[in-house]
Specification:
The chain is α+β, with helices and mostly antiparallel strands and 307 residues long. It is 21% helix and 36% strand. Strand 8 (106-108) and strand 9 form a beta hairpin. Strands 1, 2, 5, 7, 12, 13, 14, 15, 16 and 18 form a 10-stranded mixed sheet that branches. Helix 4 (227-237) crosses helix 5 (244-264).
């Protein structure tokens, strides 16, 4: 009987460990004015003291940012791009390197896969001032060059530290670039989305923001949103599943781009959330933990375009 009880207790402890949850949080922005829309974490450039982002011309960053929360664990992350392609991976998935291409990917029928094996996620404190170590970077240019100005925002998120020993990489996040060419094939995105949106524009040299209904109505819910109000709306678009620090990182990353386009270029910018189906049509995430933990995903992709 004692032997049976010990087995039951051991089984209960294993079951309890198995049902611990890892939370994967990801956000990105899709620039729908581009010929090929791209899912972006930040635009390349140099941030001036006045908050204006000056462009960095060699390359545009089209990437979402992924954080991980929960117990310490090890495992494998797979990102699958639907009918598109990767343009940059940080860190580079060493085991599937394709020689001199600089963009190691695996093609699975019509889609592309990026697989990071032997990842380690810990509570080890990552100093915000540290740079990621990636010895497998793109030749002639550091992978983070051009959007290094945004990385401090991403490192302030209290997430697990990510260690990828094959590439000598340690940071707070995983980063990938991909196209979103199949996102709006049938309808004009500015005229077809549903729900609310934020309109950004310039007034007296200042960046202003209004909350609007769907474009068919053009009814204003609220004028002159504060930054706190903008972040509250972004959080609501993410079903309030993201940390305040993640939403703040999103706003701090994209405010300079929006300010440049509105104040410097005189544009009016519309920002609205993509549906779950649209997000899944861009890419999918799959995290497998060696400990058998349950994994929950929160993904917030925003579309941004000129009207």
């Amino acid at each position: 009987m004692i032997f049976v009880i010990l087995i039951l207790l051991t089984g209960s402890e294993a079951a309890e460990r198995t049902y611990e949850t890892v939370f994967v949080h990801e956000w990105g922005v899709v620039l729908i004015d581009e010929v090929i829309p791209t899912a972006m974490g930040a635009e390349r450039g140099y941030l001036e003291e006045n908050g204006i982002l000056q462009p960095y011309y060699p390359m545009i960053v089209d990437a979402p940012v992924i954080w991980f929360h929960g117990p310490e664990f090890t495992g494998t992350l797979t990102v699958e791009v639907k009918n598109g392609y990767f343009s940059l991976l940080i860190p580079v998935p060493v085991p599937i390197s394709t020689g001199n291409d600089g963009i190691p990917i695996v093609r699975d029928e019509a889609n592309y896969l990026a697989v990071w094996k032997n990842l380690s996620f810990t509570d080890e404190v990552f100093m915000p001032g540290d740079r990621p170590v990636d010895r497998m970077g793109v030749p002639y240019e550091s992978p983070e060059e051009g959007f290094r100005w945004a990385m401090p925002f991403w490192r302030r998120v209290p997430a697990l530290s990510v260690e990828y020993e094959p590439a000598s990489y340690t940071d707070r996040f995983i980063y990938y670039e991909c196209s979103a060419s199949n996102l709006f094939e049938e309808h004009d995105p500015i005229e077809s989305y549903e729900g609310s949106s934020i309109a950004f524009y310039e007034k007296d040299g200042e960046l202003m923001a209004d909350l609007l209904t769907a474009p068919g109505n053009r009814v204003c819910f609220e004028l002159s949103l504060s930054e706190e109000g903008i972040m509250d709306i972004l959080s609501g678009w993410g079903d309030d599943e993201f940390l305040d620090e993640e939403i703040k990182a999103l706003w701090n990353t994209w405010k300079p781009s929006i300010s440049t386009r509105c104040i410097m270029n005189g544009e009016t910018i519309i920002l609205f959330p993509l549906t779950d189906e649209q997000v899944e049509s861009i890419s999918t995430l799959s995290l497998e933990t060696d400990q058998g933990f349950h994994v929950e995903y929160s993904r917030l992709f925003l579309a941004m375009g000129t009207v």
